[in-house]
Write a structure and sequence with these properties.
- The protein is mainly α and 55 residues long.
- The protein has a domain at 31-55.
- Helices cover 95% and strands 0% of the residues.
Amino acid sequence: MDPNFWYLFAAYTLILVGLFLYLFTLAGREKKLEAEIAELKAAVEKLESKDEGQA
């Protein structure tokens, strides 16, 4: 087997590993954002219900 194929294999392996790490990072960020959005929605609903009680 030509030695250059090993370099090609190594390069594609590194690219795929990097891609999967990036995708896992994005998935983690998405979960954090979803939790933050839920927290903000709860805070807004709490404020809205407090305002309705005063009106």
